Predict the structure.
Amino acid sequence: MPDALNASWIAVSELVPRLLGAGLVLFATFLVARLLQRLSARLLRRVGFDNVLERTGSTSTLRRVGFAGAPSLLIGYVIFWGILLAGAAAALSVLGLSSLQENIDLIVVLAGRALLAVLILAGGLAVAGWLSYLAGREAEVADLRGADLFRRGIFAAVLVVTALLAAAQLGIDISLLVLLATVFFGTVGLVVAL
């Protein structure tokens, strides 16, 4: 019995410093992530990132999707969560849980890819809104019929390309999707030309 108590005491005495170290790593990571989130949002606001996206109509596209904040805040959130996930992986490394650490490392890699895919989709939405607005405005100035249909077609085309890029970032094989998109857009192009 004394050997079991002694072994338990040794295990607890080794675990407590690791838990404190992991907690300290998580706390420091949270502070750094919050600081970089705010600094990046301020920097982007100061260089006029939000104003450029507002003038191009991209902000309204983000609002239609459901994000009511400024685009610089969206970038800040992505930075915050990316750093926090990396910090969680570092905290698990301090704990010495190798099997759990491998799974968390995989989650961090996948989350990083997912965050990048979300950024690609957000940027694609912004560009799609901007290009469709410009094309629709020029079509109205040229007094073309079907300006709204033309605007929607450009929005859909840019959004499809963006979705394919995001899917490729996630590791999804998009060769069949590219083939289907090529056939679809080729068919639409022929129908419009005729």
